[in-house]
Write a structure and sequence with these properties.
- The chain has about 190 residues and is an alpha/beta fold.
- The protein folds into 2 domains: about 5-70; about 90-170, Arc Repressor Mutant, subunit A, CATH 1.10.10.
- The protein has helices at about 35-45, 60-70, 90-100, 110-115, 125-130, 160-170; strands spanning about 5-15, 15-25, 25-35, 50-55, 110, 145.
- It has a 4-stranded mixed beta sheet. A two-stranded parallel sheet has the order 5-6.
- Strand 2 and strand 3 form a beta hairpin.
- Helix 4 crosses helix 5 (about 125-130).
- The longest helix has 14 residues, at about 60-70.
- It is globular, with a radius of gyration of 18 Å.
- It starts with 6 loop residues before the first strand and ends in a 17-residue tail after the last helix.
- It comes from Rhizobium fabae.
- Keywords: DNA damage, DNA repair, Methyltransferase, Transferase.
- GO terms for molecular function: methylated-DNA-[protein]-cysteine S-methyltransferase activity.
């Protein structure tokens, strides 16, 4: 069996340098922004050793343009981007397909995704693991998946949960607790 050739491209956005990798079948990896192109390249190659720099295909260039629009705060839909998820667990693929249906400015929870997939609440932990191993964060919008009670939860990308919060803020999602129902009279 021939080994799949992967190419990658590092590019700058309003939030920093991102990386994208692809095969003939689709996008295989996406690296969320870091402050330096070298750091992005190092993180991308850590997960995809042997990938070679390449000239993006028209489809990859379209995705790069969409990523740039996203980090400028423009509503962006990545649900039509062709992905190559070869080697991913079948259940993780089902989870990723469900997450791709969570649109701009919307959120869900690990438990709600488990329920949507017809598995019990104990599978919420599996959903969390799938999010942590998401090879194409943003394109599969794992940042839109929150912990129970609307808490931010974890995020394995550079910057951790503060990066997740910034991405949600770009989409207009307010994570602050609601104001108290009754205000002080100020006497």
């Amino acid at each position: 069996m021939a080994e799949t050739m992967h190419h990658y491209f590092i590019f700058e956005t309003a939030s920093g340098f991102c990386g994208i990798a692809w095969s003939d079948a689709g996008i295989t990896r996406f690296q969320l922004p870091t402050k330096a192109a070298e750091a992005t390249e190092r993180l991308l190659l850590r997960r995809l050793p042997g990938a070679e720099p390449g000239t993006p295909t028209p489809d990859v260039l379209e995705t790069v343009a969409a990523v740039k629009r996203y980090f400028q705060g423009e509503e962006t839909d990545f649900s039509g981007v062709e992905l190559d998820l070869a080697g991913q667990d079948t259940f993780f693929r089902e989870i990723y397909a469900a997450v791709r249906r969570v649109g701009w400015g919307r959120t869900t929870t690990y438990g709600a995704l488990a329920k949507e997939l017809g598995v019990g609440p104990e599978a919420a932990r599996d959903v969390g693991q799938a999010m942590a191993k998401n090879p194409v964060a943003l394109i599969i919008p794992c940042h839109r998946v929150l912990a129970a009670g609307g808490k931010i939860g974890g995020f394995s990308a550079p910057g951790g949960s503060s990066s997740k919060a910034r991405m949600l803020e770009l989409e207009g999602v307010n994570l602050a607790p609601p104001p108290p129902a009754q205000q002080s009279l100020g006497f």
